[in-house]
Design brief:
The complex is a heterodimer of chains A (about 110) and B (about 120). Chain A has about 110 residues and is mostly beta strands. Chain A has no helices and eleven strands. In chain A, the strands form two sheets. In chain A, strands 2, 4, 5, 6, 9, 10 and 11 form a seven-stranded mixed beta sheet that branches. Chain A starts with a strand and ends with a strand. The mean pLDDT of chain A is about 90. Chain B contains no helices and twelve strands. In chain B, strands 2, 5, 6, 10, 11 and 12 form a six-stranded mixed beta sheet that branches. Chain B has a four-stranded antiparallel beta sheet with strand order 3-9-8-7, with no helix packed on it. Chain B starts with a strand and ends with a strand. The chains are: A mainly beta (about 110), B mainly beta (about 120). At the A-B interface, strand 5, strand 9 and strand 10 of A face strand 5, strand 6, strand 10 and strand 11 of B.
């Protein structure tokens, strides 16, 4: 595997389910990010991790819970989501925060019923 | 607040022709990066080109080049010899150099269609 990978690519869940999104980067980067991409809206930053420490929580509801066990892996735990949470969730990484470009994964298309 | 504006929701270009996508931004910072990302229907966001604000020379990557006007806070993307594979959403993005959050601020995107 190369670059940034995300699993699953598609996820359908009910409002009472608990699920997790996984992101893995194979680039040796120190910073990782979660973004939400909804139709007709700009990408929204959700969380930023630098060297496994959260440095940004962009007023995200508590039903989204991130976890960064090491600099290569990032998870987004989901519970009791709402239909308006349906979106494309993108993971990205960069060498450091605020230094150069971010490399994105293919995204997880989430549908909440 | 830092904002990125893409005023063209959709653009169309004939194959082999040239097209320019517009982007303006607002910031009080002097040191920052600007990027153009491409997102084809496969959804993978791919970096097209980047520009450091301190560099006066416009960045180029093969058929892609930018016109960076720092005083005007303008950052347009020119695609030369357009190909069918260039059809995608194009996003302009900004980030502060050395920012502790490192968050990219994106425009709403421009959907580019390429006609054969």
């Amino acid at each position: 595997e190369t670059g940034v990978t995300q699993t699953p690519r598609h996820l359908v869940m009910g409002m009472t389910n608990k699920k997790s999104l996984k992101c893995e980067q194979h680039l040796g980067h120190n910073a990782m990010y979660w973004y939400k991409q909804s139709a007709k809206k700009p990408l929204e930053l959700m969380f930023v991790y630098s060297l496994e420490e959260r440095v940004e929580n962009n007023s995200v509801p508590s039903r989204f819970s991130p976890e960064c066990p090491n600099s290569s892996h990032l998870f987004l735990h989901l519970h009791t989501l709402q239909p308006e949470d349906s979106a494309l969730y993108l993971c990205a990484s960069s060498q450091e925060t605020g230094l150069g470009e971010q490399f994105f994964g293919p995204g997880t298309r989430l549908t909440v019923l | 607040a830092q904002t990125v504006t893409q005023s063209q929701p959709e653009m169309s270009v004939q194959e082999a022709e040239t097209v320019t996508l517009s982007c303006t931004y607002d910031t009080s910072e002097s040191d920052y990066y600007l990027f153009w990302y491409k997102q084809p229907p496969s959804r993978q966001m791919i970096l097209v080109i980047r520009q450091e604000a301190y560099k006066q020379q416009n960045a180029t990557e093969n058929r892609f080049s930018v016109n960076f006007q720092k005083a005007a806070k303008s950052f347009s993307l020119k695609i030369s010899d357009s190909q069918l594979g260039d059809a995608a959403m194009y996003f302009c993005a900004y980030t502060v150099y050395g920012g502790s959050q490192g968050n990219l601020i994106f425009g709403k995107g421009t959907k580019l269609s390429v006609k054969p």
